[in-house]
């Protein structure tokens, strides 16, 4: 069995997209995945499965979530080793850019092509830098970027299916599950 992590996008935002941790655990376990755990109420799930295909795992989870909730829940899955590498990149980047106001890590369903990665990184500027590392994009936001703004660099729509977590949450999940 292999351990995977799933990151759910756009849940617990407003009254119509509610998906509590206990329900997430119940639905994931109901698909046949084992050793299901969640971390905080933002859609971070750990589980074991015999399935090897990331796309198949995502599809199984997305169908189960839609059936249970009545709305689509885009799901991005990482093997634990792959996610540990995302966390290592986040830590290195954070150390190389002291004084950041925020460091968001966008987790992508699909790895961008070289041209797509270059376009994403071209959004870097006075407010911060965008750095692509595989299926993760790091938004390294400088002081004064307008705290609280969801997409201060205007790049999110170019990422495809993605969800973000703070560097702190990425580090906590990697320490807990990887």
- Strand order in space, largest sheet: 2-3-1-4
The structural domain count equals 2
Largest sheet: 4 strands, antiparallel
Query: Which blocks of ≥5 consecutive residues have pLDDT under 50?
Result: none
Question: Any guess at the CATH architecture of the largest domain?
Answer: 2-Layer Sandwich
Count of individual beta strands? 8
Helix content: 25-40%
Reported by name, the CATH topology of the largest domain is Alpha-Beta Plaits
Percent of sequence in beta strands: 25-35%
CATH class of the largest domain: Alpha Beta
Distance between the termini: 15 Å
Number of separate helices: 5
Q: What sequence of helices (H) and strands (E) makes up the elements?
A: EHEEHEHEHEEEH
What structural class should be given to the helix and strand makeup? alpha+beta
Structural account:
This protein is of the alpha+beta class and 178 residues long. The protein has 2 domains: 2-79, Alpha-Beta Plaits (2-Layer Sandwich), CATH 3.30.70; 81-177, Alpha-Beta Plaits. It contains 5 helices and 8 strands, in the order βαββαβαβαβββα. The strands form 2 sheets. The protein has a 4-stranded antiparallel β-sheet with strand order 2-3-1-4. Strands 6-7-5-8 form a 4-stranded antiparallel β-sheet.
């Amino acid at each position: 069995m292999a351990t995977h992590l799933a990151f759910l996008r756009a849940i617990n935002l407003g009254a119509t997209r509610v998906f509590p941790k206990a329900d997430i655990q119940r639905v994931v376990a109901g698909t046949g995945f084992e050793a299901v755990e969640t971390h905080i109420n933002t859609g971070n799930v750990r589980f074991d499965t015999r399935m090897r295909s990331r796309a198949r795992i995502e599809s199984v989870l997305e169908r189960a979530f839609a059936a249970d909730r009545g709305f689509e829940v885009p799901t991005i899955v990482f093997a634990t080793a792959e996610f540990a590498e995302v966390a290592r990149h986040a830590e290195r980047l954070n150390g190389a850019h002291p004084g950041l106001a925020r460091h968001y890590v966008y987790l992508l369903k699909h790895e961008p092509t070289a041209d797509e990665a270059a376009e994403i990184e071209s959004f870097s500027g006075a407010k911060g830098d965008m750095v692509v590392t595989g299926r993760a994009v790091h938004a390294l936001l400088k002081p004064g970027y307008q705290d609280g703004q969801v997409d201060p660099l205007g790049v999110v729509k170019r990422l495809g299916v993605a969800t973000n977590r703070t560097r702190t949450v990425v580090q906590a999940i990697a320490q807990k599950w990887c």
